[in-house]
């Protein structure tokens, strides 16, 4: 079955197709999740959450984007959101996490991160979502367009306006 037909079948809620996706991607997603250091949850928890989200949001899948890419983005976003919630200070080297060692640097980084998050929270909801996907989760305009049904030009405009707003806030603080 080609990618488009497979995704259309998933979107219709076909259990056999979902099971096939689960069997095809489970081990790959586990290997991705194992690259992170988690304190509470296991890689299996993140993979399970990925498939839950895939099923619950299946109507948002795009037939023109490879399923691999969509599933990996879902998993990556779940992991990154979890890491952000844990307030870990991380530097992401393609799917590898390193925790800052210097306490002083960590405090400064935490402070700046907190301010940035508070400025991001002041943005309109759509700008907030797009800015976060691009700047914090490192998704390209094309990837964001695939996830949001917006044009790359609209995404660029949202990022421009959000960046301008945040820059202005930073200068005033």
From TrEMBL:
Entries under Pfam families matching the protein? Sigma70_r4_2
Q: Where is the signal peptide?
A: none
The name of this protein is RNA polymerase sigma factor 70 region 4 type 2 domain-containing protein
SUPFAM superfamilies annotated for this entry? Sigma2 domain of RNA polymerase sigma factors (SSF88946), Sigma3 and sigma4 domains of RNA polymerase sigma factors (SSF88659)
Q: Which residues cross the membrane?
A: none
Please report the stretch or stretches of sequence annotated as the RNA polymerase sigma factor 70 region 4 type domain.
115-164
Keywords from UniProt, A to Z, are: Sigma factor, Transcription, Transcription regulation
State the similarity comment: Belongs to the sigma-70 factor family. ECF subfamily.
Q: Which Gene3D superfamilies match?
A: 1.10.1740.10, Winged helix-like DNA-binding domain superfamily/Winged helix DNA-binding domain
């Amino acid at each position: 079955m080609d990618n488009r037909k497979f995704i259309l079948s998933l979107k219709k809620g076909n259990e056999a197709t979902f099971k096939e996706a689960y069997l095809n991607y489970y081990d790959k997603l586990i290997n991705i999740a194992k690259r992170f250091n988690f304190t509470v949850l296991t890689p299996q928890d993140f993979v399970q959450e990925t498939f839950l989200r895939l099923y619950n949001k299946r109507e948002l899948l795009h037939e023109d984007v490879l399923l691999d890419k969509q599933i990996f983005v879902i998993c990556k976003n779940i992991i990154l959101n979890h890491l952000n919630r844990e307030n870990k200070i991380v530097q992401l080297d393609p799917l590898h996490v390193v925790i800052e060692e210097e306490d002083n640097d960590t405090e400064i980084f935490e402070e700046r991160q907190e301010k940035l998050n508070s400025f991001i929270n002041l943005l309109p909801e759509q700008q907030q979502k797009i800015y976060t996907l691009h700047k914090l989760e490192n998704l390209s305009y094309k990837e964001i367009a695939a996830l949001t049904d917006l044009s790359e030009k609209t995404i660029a405009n949202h990022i421009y306006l959000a960046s301008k707003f945040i820059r202005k806030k930073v200068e005033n603080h």
